[in-house]
Task: inverse folding
């Protein structure tokens, strides 16, 4: 992890994981950070407007703690896995698209990884939800400290 910076009531930093740079930011005094997809200039442009940055943060945070969505994705992955491994599964496409059969069999062999990914995202969502409920973000306090009109 690199140095943390502060701008307009937000802390942000970059992290180079597996050869890719990711930017993370959160309001000051908040513990849950969200990932920003973009370069540093784009993040700084977003942070120039604290209202927009706060809206972006809250939207991403809501998506991170959405346990119902994660459970739905897990159910869909399990149903897809079952349908792909059903003995009556027919990928079709043997006459007009012969590659479809090969792709369907390849997807069937990899469907267990989508279940593992969905389980992992469910655990992460539950973890973030517990953290968010344990120390809720006081948006009104943050707004009075960082969005108050100067003067």
Result:
């Amino acid at each position: 992890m690199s140095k943390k910076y502060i701008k307009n009531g937000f802390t942000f930093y970059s992290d180079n994981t597996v050869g890719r740079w990711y930017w993370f930011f959160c309001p000051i005094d908040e513990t849950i950070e969200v990932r920003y997809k973009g370069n540093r200039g784009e993040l700084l442009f977003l942070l120039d407007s604290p209202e927009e940055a706060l809206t972006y943060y809250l939207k991403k945070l809501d998506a991170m703690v959405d346990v119902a969505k994660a459970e739905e994705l897990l159910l869909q992955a399990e149903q897809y896995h079952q349908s792909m491994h059903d003995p009556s599964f027919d990928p079709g496409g043997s006459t007009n698209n012969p590659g479809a059969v090969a792709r369907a069999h390849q997807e069937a062999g990899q469907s267990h990884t989508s279940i593992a990914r969905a389980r992992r995202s469910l655990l992460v969502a539950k973890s973030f939800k517990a953290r968010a409920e344990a120390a809720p973000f006081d948006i009104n306090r943050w707004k009075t400290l960082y969005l108050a009109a100067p003067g």
About this structure: The CA atoms of residues 29 and 103 lie 48 Å apart. Residues 67-122 form one domain. The longest strand covers residues 10-17.
